[in-house]
Specification:
single chain, 621 residues, alpha/beta, Leucine-rich repeat, LRR (right-handed beta-alpha superhelix), 13-stranded parallel β-sheet, 22 helices, 9% strand, globular
Amino acid sequence: MSNTRRRNSSNNDGPQGIRERSRVVAEREASRLARPDQPSASGTLGHASRARSSVASTPFGQMMGGRSPPGRKSNPGHQDWCGPFSVARQMIAAREEARRLREEQLAENDPSNSKESHPLDEVTEAALEKKRRLENPSMNWVSRRQRANNSPTNGDATRVSYYASRRQRFNQQKILGNGGSIVSLFQLCVNCLVENFERIDSLGMVDHSIRRALCERLVAQGKMNGAAFDVLAEMGVETLELVDCAQVTKDQLCEALRILLPSGLRAIILNHCGRCFGTQAVQVISEIEKDKLELFAISLGGAYLLKDEDMAKLISAAWRTLSSIEITACPLIGTQFCEALGVHFSTLVGGMLLELSLQNIPLTKDALLSLGASSDALRNLKSLKLKEMECVDDEIVSIILSSIDQGTLEGIDLSGNPQLTDEILPCIRRCNTNGNLRALLLSGLKQLTAIGLEIFFTPIDGLPSPPMLRKIDLSQCSKDEVNDSILILAAKAASFKRSLTDAIDEDNPNPESLFFGISNVMGLVHVNFGGSSITDKSLEMLAATCSSSLQELDISFATSVTDNGLGYLTSKVGCQFKKVSIWGLAQITEDFLDGHDRVEEGGLEIVGVWMKKSGGRSLRR
């Protein structure tokens, strides 16, 4: 017996025993430090040598280990170590138990589970599902990717991985030219001219659109300087359009205006012109003989040197032929500008203003009220833009729209004015007496409500018919207020034949049944409902009413839209549908991106999808 104890003691004192004991000590201490609120599940660790241990046994027998804490099941393999792999194993092991407990809690809280089952429950559920699919045709849409994967003839040959499908999509876009790899002949010519622009003395009689493309490329390449300006602004041009005038000096612009205005310059479109367009340029324009001045359009952006009296002087010099005014981010414009508009474009003087665009201009409320109330200068307006102006409220919009008494308005842009409410909607409806309104942009108006918008697009006795819009923008409004009902009413108003409006069955929930009342030449063209609460129901209505007209759709951050709605819309609209923006729609998967009906033929640009080619940089499409 003594020999056996001596042999066990020698085994425990060996290197292997010491290593095992050190490991146990480390695990015990780590568990204690990681979970100090839980008692240790392991027993008291004995001495390294049983021969030297003073506590080897108890009066009741050998001490094998400590007691488990109350409420914990006995598990000799349980460890409280908090390392990443141990925690992962514990979570995986507890997953089924947590799932079972969660299902039990849901079953207790769900009142439908308390109902007794019936033999016809499955038949009833099938009938309800059939009804839902009839009312929502997008539920029947199946992705081409799913059809290929589920095809019994192909087996597993067509089942590709996620990365393989992304690579296939990238290669397909590259072949079709959507990836920017195939440059058009026009762009090749523009690039060649820009690369050798310092050798060009004159562009000849080319259109202003070509000059604009050259200017954009010069700005992108950092080559837009004084010499390039002299070539673009040569004698004989009718439109002086520059996307960036930061490198153009006052003297250069004034010298060009002295030459171009008497020779037939008709439009001045300058962006970022704060350095060059100011008092001196206005003085040059006012010195031109009246019978030689043929300006009909002036567009100035960022002219921070242009004073209020200078703008009034410019209008007084060019009002005879001027019909379009656009001013953006000119901080010195004020009351004198509005007074000049009211005087020179009134009926007494005879000026005719057709387009007025003001954005980010610090005008006062009294100045705008005087423009609409004390003059009929805006009586012939076709396009009105009052964007991002702090003073614009319901009263200003009401007075200005009431002064346009000819029903000629074709476009209204009131975006970015937080003070506007539902009160502006009846005013817009009343000024559309002739039904000419085609564009309505109300982006960022947080105080618009669903009731006001529904009334705006609903036929009401005593008011003109709802506008037949081509472009609508209700993005960044209140998410809960801009919903399916708004878009459905707007789409119906834009595309139904007026003679058949009363005969439409409003109770039929299936949008495909409305096809008989659709006008072949009407329908929404540009739709922006970003940040709204629309669902697939709205996309079904767009597919039914705008299949031959829809060109661009922006539903960014509309989180209730699914693959089925987008896929159904893409399968129904024609090839004129060129662009869809889906920023912030994480729920859109490869079922739509790789399975819609335009994947192979191309021509549809999907903006807002992240793709990464293996081994290359990330691409945002």
